[in-house]
TrEMBL record:
SUPFAM superfamilies: (Trans)glycosidases (SSF51445), Glycosyl hydrolase domain (SSF51011). It comes from the Eukaryota. Residues 251-313 form the Isoamylase 1-3-like C-terminal domain. InterPro entries: GH, Glyco_hydro_b, ISOA1-3-like_C. This is Isoamylase 3, chloroplastic. PANTHER family: GLYCOGEN DEBRANCHING ENZYME.
Length: 336
């Protein structure tokens, strides 16, 4: 339900605690059995992420997940606690009554706003083609062009952009909740900085099948492979909120706003996962958790490596002791 918060307002626009339409849908014997997802805000400024009237049925687009991921990955200060909370399933928003982690719809990109590619290629919107003199579209995108605005031939900038796209997709795939992605992001679709392109019926909004083919063995392989890895791994997308025995945060620097490194281990099923995100501009050498007898860590993802080494679903053995995590990159290891 697009801009669903408008459905919670009374006749005079006042937000209602028990809006009759939402209640009727929630109590209907047929409608209550389908997946109900709200975009929990509206054009009048009513923002209800975590508070949308839900009767323990409605899920929500988690806009706070989007904001935390974008800010942390681009290197904003003071975002580590927020990102950790979102990765763990946003219990601060959804762990009450009968709600579950799957009531959080996690996303980095939605149908409007920047595409995943443009999120790492533009600092500002470029909406002149919309005919409104650039007045339309959101001005606060939490984006970073990685050193050049728009199209560039700079090899370093292009490599950084690819890492950042991989990083944001990895966060979404390892977080508790339901991941949502936008068609076209799997090959790096660009709208050339237009963040409000809904009115166009052209290359800005059309799916580019030929571009998909050019990335089939590189970014598309990484993108789709991680989706499959998440689907097949029991520790990702759990039905209940995580307890202390389910996750270990490898962190003693929570209160330092300048700290931009976050690492954790998910435990269970003998297939523990270790994940680390480095949003610093320098390498961070980490000491890995000790593997139990007879097992070892295998590298599944290192976003700093070129394809196909960036994603190896079966895992690369021999990762022990320490790992040097590259600037603006992330890793995923699996215990085998």
């Amino acid at each position: 339900f697009d801009l669903a918060s408008i459905l919670t307002r009374g006749e005079d626009g006042t937000p209602l605690a028990n809006p009759p339409l939402i209640r009727a849908i929630s109590k209907d014997p047929v409608l209550s059995e389908v997946k109900l997802i709200s975009e929990p805000w509206d054009c009048g400024g009513l923002y209800q992420v975590g508070s949308f009237p839900n009767w323990d049925i409605w899920a929500e687009w988690n806009g706070k997940f989007r904001d935390a991921v974008r800010k942390f990955i681009k290197g904003s200060e003071g975002q580590k606690r927020a990102l950790a909370t979102r990765i763990a399933g946003s219990s601060d928003l959804y762990n009450y009554h009968q709600r579950k982690p799957f009531h959080s719809i996690n996303f980095v990109v939605a149908h409007d706003g920047f595409t995943l590619h443009d999120l790492v290629a533009y600092n500002q919107k470029h909406n002149r083609a919309n005919g409104e003199s650039g007045r339309d579209g959101c001005n606060d995108n939490d984006s970073w062009n990685c050193g050049a605005e728009g199209e560039t031939s700079d090899v370093g900038v292009l490599a950084l952009r690819k890492r950042q796209m991989r990083n944001m997709h990895l966060v979404n795939m390892v977080s508790q909740g339901v991941p949502m992605v936008v068609m076209g992001d799997e090959y790096g679709h660009t709208r050339h900085g237009n963040n409000n392109a809904y009115g166009h019926d052209n290359h800005l909004t059309h799916f580019q099948w030929e571009l998909l083919e050019t990335t089939r063995d590189s970014f598309f392989r990484y993108f789709s492979g991680l989706v499959s890895f998440r689907r097949d791994h029991p520790l990702l997308g759990q039905a209940e909120f995580l307890g202390k025995a389910d996750i270990t945060w490898h962190e003693d620097n929570w209160s330092n706003p300048e700290s931009k490194f976050l690492a954790f281990t998910l435990h269970g099923h003998g297939r523990d996962l270790y994940c680390a995100f480095n949003a610093h501009h320098y390498f961070v050498k980490v000491t890995l958790p000790e593997a139990p007898g007879g097992k070892s860590w295998h590298r599944v993802v290192d976003t700093n490596l070129p394809s196909p080494a960036d994603f190896t679903p079966e895992g690369i053995a021999g990762v022990q002791g320490q790992y040097n995590v590259a600037p603006y990159s992330s890793i995923l290891l699996q215990l085998q």
